[in-house]
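Marked as duplicate of an earlier ticket. Keeping the data here for the record.
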Amino acid sequence: MPVAIVSGSGGLVGSESVRRLVESGWEVVGLENDLRAEFFGPDASTAAVSNELAESYGEFRWLKTDIRDTAAVERAFSSEGARIELVVHTAAQPSHDWAARDPQTDFGVNANGTLNLLEATRRFSPEATFVFCSTNKVYGDTPNGLPLEELESRLELPADHRWFDGIDTTMSIDRSTHSLFGASKAAADLLVQEYGRYFEMPTVCFRAGCLTGPQHAGAQLHGFLAYLMKCVVTGTPYTVFGYGGKQVRDNLHSADLVACFEAFHRSPRPAAVYNIGGGRESNCSMLEAIDACERIAGRELGWELSEENRIGDHRWWISDLDEFRSDYPDWRLRHGIEDILRQIHEHNVERWTAAAA
């Protein structure tokens, strides 16, 4: 039975990876120490998910490992060695705002933790496919220089612009404001590429837009669709930061992203890089997301607009999916915005309503 290592195995993408891999015949070792609860509070804890995975799957082994702990990471890899055929690295500090509060922890998790995983893979299982969950924030605020037009409910690129169908990887990551989070993830992204080129390891960076799904423990500082729906359901006030609420994001269901991981592993290559997200098939502005959540939940949201946008935040982002589809033509995006929001609502509404009562 092949072995996969999944970092951040209790999180949205990590837990989706665990389920998919175990059900496909893999033995999975999860590295998860629930730092998310420290970052965003007890409501964002991954402990319940980790416990559920451990109870449901005999082929899943949960190690309460901090990826900043070099020795602990090495122990996890050395115990499995060449049996490891796949490493899925999803563990991260994922928030712009939180990174500014504690830059050393942010960089330690995002950059140094990635280095620990790469080096352990090189030493103990160099043939393993290394999949890194990167971010579009490696481009900093460069997308904000695009010639956007203001429409009634969103900002939009002119239809004849080269990136109307989505931004590709030719966009520069230089001469821009990244936020400290974006800088730490860019460092990790470059490390993953370098290990691929220098050591000829099969590595890939998926520079993702917004990742979401019904299992997402959305918090104010991260996971906006899940947190937005939670606020609608529970009557919690919501703040939109900047751009008149017309900023656009593409949103990718975690199951569709994990399908990308599987496709790459079936035919890996060194130092691959892809922008990945919902593309033109799954995107919305904040105003459009609020309207959809209110319609699905049958409730109105009390929200306010802050004139200040978050540092390094994008006014508009839609990913170009053509590069990945060209290399992996069998991959299909199966979930759009409406489907994603209905899943989030149906999966969580009873729990959120009971907790708010």
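See parent ticket for discussion. Residues 232 and 273 are 36 Å apart (CA to CA).
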